[in-house]
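sorry for the late reply, my laptop died twice this morning and i had to redo everyting from scratch. anyway the thing you sent over, i finally got around to it. pasting the sequence first so we're on the same page, its 239 residues, then the predicted structure underneath. double check i copied it right bc i was rushing
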Amino acid sequence: MSASSLPPPAARRRFRRQLLAWYGANGRDLPWRKTDDPYHILVSEVMLQQTQVDRVLPKYHEWLAKYPSLEALAAARRTDVAKTWRPLGYNIRPRRLHAIARESVTRYGGQLPSDEETLLSFKGIGAYTAGAIRSFAFRQRAAILDTNVARVLFRVFIGSGDPKAHAMRRHLWAVSAALVPRKRVFDFNQALMDLGAMVCVARTPKCAVCPMTKSCCSAAELRQPASRNAAQESGPRNA
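ok and here's the structure:
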């Protein structure tokens, strides 16, 4: 598939079916997957930015025990919020959470709205986080694209070009949006993230156990040089 085209309907259906089957057998058991509270999902998404899951798990529970709602977080002192966040790092993140909580209390009755435009109006909520909240909390048909998801979609459906280029990033958003199913949106988006985190990793991807290997553009390119080398090596021996 070219970098300017979207996967055809048959390829989309096959990708969804294979991904969801893989997720059913291999998906991670994570606490934020057992809630549809938009605030809890927001906390998990902000904590997971550039931070490994095993570091987030204890802090997620500690944070929600101390600040169980947006109202509780909004009422907290900024210094206490910053202290509770440690040692996760990237300390702008707790400040953003605190600001989001205060704005939600002031303008939306202590709730996070469900529509994309309003979510994006919060400083600290970008396109990915808005999509995560909409799909995980409200079960809306919303696309996501973080580093892991972008890597999966680029490798499976495109395979060549610069995955970090702005035009490619926009195209990957379009691919993600085209793939989102009408049902099981929560599972599908969680599955995309798990596949990128567990199998289609940045270095040494585990292609041998990937459910997408047979239809993956990048895997096909990796197989071709190996096949050519094998043919070259077999030629002289057979001569």
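The two ends are 38 Å apart (CA to CA).
thats about all i looked at so far, will dig more tmrw
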